[in-house]
Amino acid sequence: MRESICRRISAESQRQAGFTLVEVLVALAIMAITLVAVFQLQSQSVSMSSESRFATSAALLAQSKMAEIEAGVLTLNRTQEGNFGPDYPQYSWRVDISDTQLEQFKKIEVTVSNKDMQRRGDYRLVLYKVQ
């Protein structure tokens, strides 16, 4: 009788030692949801990083182009366009000069664009200058 009790206890402990299929599926579902969230955050982080890099580069390029205008390197025509050469091949610039309501002021608008940016790929810098 003692042997049959030991065998029953041994058989019950063997059945409870593993995981059921439902427990494994629930664990996999939780892990899948977590991984999707982590990958989405990683993708968003990369996107924000590239937008930040563009904003920094475009601001510096626009300021350098505005400095050229103020120094008289560029002539004050109505509209001019160009690129930044081999150093920044994906960036281009456009200068628009227009009159304002006050005759002594000109509005100078420098727009720097990045052709690789799908959205928010333009940076605009405006200066009002006395003639």
Explain this structure to me?
The chain has 131 residues and is an alpha+beta fold. It has a single domain (2-130), classed as GSPII I/J protein-like (Pantoate--beta-alanine Ligase, Chain: A,domain 2). Helix content is 50%, strand content 25%. The protein has helices spanning 2-15, 21-71, and strands at residues 79-83, 91-99, 105-114, 122-130. The protein has a four-stranded antiparallel beta sheet with strand order 1-2-3-4. A hairpin with a 7-residue loop joins strand 1 (79-83) and strand 2. The radius of gyration is 33 Å and the shape is rod-shaped. It starts with a helix and ends with a strand. The relative contact order is 0.11. The model has no long low-confidence stretch (mean pLDDT 85).
Key terms for this structure?
131 residues; alpha+beta; Pantoate--beta-alanine Ligase, Chain: A,domain 2; four-stranded antiparallel β-sheet; rod-shaped
Number of helices: 2
Biggest sheet: strands, sense, closure? Answer: 4 strands, antiparallel
Count of separate structural domains: 1
CATH architecture: 2-Layer Sandwich
Might you state the CATH topology name?
Pantoate--beta-alanine Ligase, Chain: A,domain 2
Oligomer: single chain
Q: Which class in CATH terms?
A: Alpha Beta
Query: Quick one: how many beta strands?
Result: 4
Shape: rod-shaped
Question: What integer value in Å does the Rg equal?
Answer: 33 Å
Low-confidence stretches: none
**Proportion in β-strands:** 25-35%
Strand order of the largest sheet: 1-2-3-4
H/E topology pattern: HHEEEE
User: Cα distance, first to last residue?
Assistant: 112 Å
CATH homologous superfamily identity: GSPII I/J protein-like
Overall pLDDT, averaged?
85
Helix content: 40-55%
Instruction: Determine the structural class based on helices, strands and strand pairing.
Output: alpha+beta
